[in-house]
Specification:
Helix content: over 70%
Number of strands: 0
Number of domains: 1
């Protein structure tokens, strides 16, 4: 194994002393440092996984927003479809009123309406 010389501050040195020796978790300072480096690598890998998962969550949130928008549009269309029978009935009523007005009109009125159109308003005669 290659040998390295490192400089650490007093608190870090005290921590190494506490973690090694007779009552410590590690048999040597080198073993402790190797473990810290390995833990750092594992932390870096875990951070990559967290970042990847965050990207997936953001992607899913964007998809949810897109689907909610489509759902709102669909709801609006469904509302229009629900109103359609009423509009059709009103159109039929318009047609019926137009026909009734034509049936009651005199010949000169009908001739004039050929050019101007039948004035069908909401008024009933």
């Amino acid at each position: 194994m290659p040998r390295l010389t490192i400089t650490i501050d007093e608190d870090q040195s005290d921590l190494l002393e506490d973690l090694t020796g007779e009552n410590g978790e590690y048999e040597s300072k080198s073993a402790a440092v190797r473990n810290f480096i390995q833990a750092g690598e594992e932390r870096r890998e875990l951070q990559k996984e967290v970042d990847r998962l965050q990207d997936r969550v953001e992607s899913r949130e964007e998809r949810i927003e897109e689907l909610e928008s489509q759902l709102r549009k669909r709801s609006q269309i469904e509302d229009k479809i629900e109103d359609l029978p009423d509009k059709i009935r009103n159109a039929e009523t318009y047609t019926e009123r137009r026909q009734r007005k034509l049936d009651r009109a005199t010949l000169p009125q009908r001739f004039m309406w050929k050019f101007t159109g039948v004035p069908v308003d909401d008024e009933d005669e």
